[in-house]
């Protein structure tokens, strides 16, 4: 009991210091995790949790995956951060692997995050258009409820007024359409348009899935109008949706793909993947990143891809995603308060007809489950792809009890 009290004090002390010294840019929960292993977390008091967020989708291979740690430790003992005016072995090897698994890529640029990858893709698309067509082609079409990052350029591409209105004026040159509405895209195309950027599943926007027919039509429109199609796979990439990249389920070939999150297995890294033709416009001095392609982060990325392929995480995500979706749909048929289940693979959401998400999330923590709310009516599930059916059953049993109690309390 004495040891537990020490841990409780440690937890409280750290939270107080955090509130004092950290900028309040997050609505943090009063909990401190100090240990992680694959799909599980432990707080400072020793309580175990099953994580259904995987660090906002950053840990497809699980927390502290032993294969990633081993490779990372070996690299750190050699060299961590060589300058980008020299080649480094992990960076070259990871670039080659990304080109290979993408099925279309021929060149890679490394950044530190997804937002930086999006910023680089915006620059790449504009530079390509400038060199090929002239400076008037600079506008990019993006989509309502999208999320591409919080830096000013990526925020301008993020078509959510509530996230943008505090930071105006934003980078100009963006127009917004609606997913699954090809007519809304056509209305935005003019002589100034150079590219389209889209998430095939809108993550922050509510797990909104693009229809295959819409994406195929979008690709054709891009080809007909000589626009670059940029696919944002920052959250959907690396087997999350049941294929290595989500676009591989849509029978299209993108022009540019941006990735990040799970590529590093917990290490900070992002990347732009494109073709020789498009990337030729990036010449020395046009773009760069001090830490982009860091040898340590790239070594982690190599381990992630190997683990993902060796363990068929795409097949696992497809199978377990169907299992989770089927169990969630049973709850939908059982309780009228559940409005909709949507998503693909292990990227799913449950939407309620009433604002119960905040209390549900807090109650889940008390029951050893880490969940994420997208809004007061929507909970998002982004577990590591190493979870199992037993983990899912525990989640479903909790949701069943909670929803039943919520309905009972209303009577």
Brief characterization of the structure:
The chain is α/β, with parallel strands linked by helices. It has helices spanning 2-21, 54-57, 66-76, 89-102, 114-133, 152-157, 161-164, 182-188, 212-224, 276-279, 295-310, 313-334, 357-366, 389-410, and strands at 33-37, 40-43, 48-51, 107-111, 139-143, 174-177, 193-198, 201-202, 208-209, 228-232, 256-259, 270-274, 338-344, 347-352, 369-370, 372-375, 378-381. It has two domains: 2-52 and 312-410, Aspartate Aminotransferase, domain 1 (Alpha-Beta Complex), CATH 3.90.1150.10; 66-310, 3-Layer(aba) Sandwich (Aspartate Aminotransferase, domain 2).
Task: Label this structure with key terms.
single chain; 411 residues; alpha/beta; Aspartate Aminotransferase, domain 1; Aspartate Aminotransferase, domain 2; 2 domains; seven-stranded mixed β-sheet; four-stranded mixed β-sheet; 14 helices; 18% strand
Written description of the protein model:
The protein has helices at 2-21, 54-57, 66-76, 89-102, 114-133, 152-157, 161-164, 182-188, 212-224, 276-279, 295-310, 313-334, 357-366, 389-410, and strands spanning 33-37, 40-43, 48-51, 107-111, 139-143, 174-177, 193-198, 201-202, 208-209, 228-232, 256-259, 270-274, 338-344, 347-352, 369-370, 372-375, 378-381. The chain has 411 residues and is an alpha/beta fold. The strands form 4 sheets. The protein has a 7-stranded mixed sheet, sandwiched between helices. A 4-stranded mixed sheet has the order 1-2-3-15. It is globular, with a radius of gyration of 22 Å. The longest helix has 22 residues, at 313-334. A hairpin with a 2-residue loop joins strand 1 (33-37) and strand 2 (40-43).
């Amino acid at each position: 009991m004495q040891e537990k009290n020490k841990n409780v004090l440690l937890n409280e002390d750290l939270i107080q210091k955090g509130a004092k010294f950290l900028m309040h840019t997050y609505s943090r929960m009063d909990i401190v995790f100090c240990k992680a292993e694959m799909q599980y977390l432990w707080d400072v008091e020793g309580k175990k949790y099953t994580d259904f967020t995987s660090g906002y989708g950053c840990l497809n291979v699980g927390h502290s995956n032993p294969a990633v740690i081993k490779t990372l430790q070996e690299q750190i003992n050699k060299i961590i951060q060589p300058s980008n005016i020299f080649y480094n072995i992990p960076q070259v090897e990871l670039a080659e692997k990304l080109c290979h698994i993408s099925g279309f890529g021929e060149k890679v640029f490394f950044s530190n995050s997804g937002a930086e990858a999006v910023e680089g893709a915006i620059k790449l698309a504009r530079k390509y258009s400038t060199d090929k067509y002239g400076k008037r082609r600079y506008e990019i079409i993006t989509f309502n409820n999208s999320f591409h990052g919080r830096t000013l350029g990526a925020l301008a591409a993020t078509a959510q007024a509530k996230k943008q209105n505090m930071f105006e004026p934003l980078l100009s040159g963006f127009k917004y359409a609606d997913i699954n509405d090809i007519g809304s895209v056509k209305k935005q195309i003019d002589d100034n348009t150079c590219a389209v950027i889209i998430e095939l599943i809108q993550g922050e926007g509510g797990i909104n899935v693009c229809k295959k027919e819409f994406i195929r039509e979008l690709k054709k429109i891009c080809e007909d109008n000589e626009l670059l199609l940029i696919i944002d796979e920052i959250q959907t990439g690396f087997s999350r949706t049941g294929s290595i990249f989500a676009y591989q389920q849509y029978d299209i070939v993108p022009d540019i793909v941006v990735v990040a999150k799970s590529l590093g297995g917990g290490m900070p890294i992002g990347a732009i993947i494109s073709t020789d033709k498009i990337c030729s416009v990036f010449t020395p001095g046009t773009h760069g990143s001090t830490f982009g392609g860091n040898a340590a982060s790239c070594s982690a990325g190599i381990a992630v891809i190997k683990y993902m392929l060796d363990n068929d995480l795409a097949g696992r995500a497809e199978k377990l995603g169907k299992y989770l979706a089927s169990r969630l749909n049973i709850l939908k048929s059982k309780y009228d308060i559940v409005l909709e289940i949507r998503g693909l693979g292990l990227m799913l959401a449950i939407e309620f007809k009433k604002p119960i998400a905040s209390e549900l999330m807090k109650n889940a923590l008390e029951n050893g489950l880490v969940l994420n709310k997208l809004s007061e009516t929507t909970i998002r599930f982004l577990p590591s792809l190493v979870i199992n059916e037993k983990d899912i059953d525990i989640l479903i049993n909790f949701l069943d009890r909670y929803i039943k109690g919520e309905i009972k309390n209303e009577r």
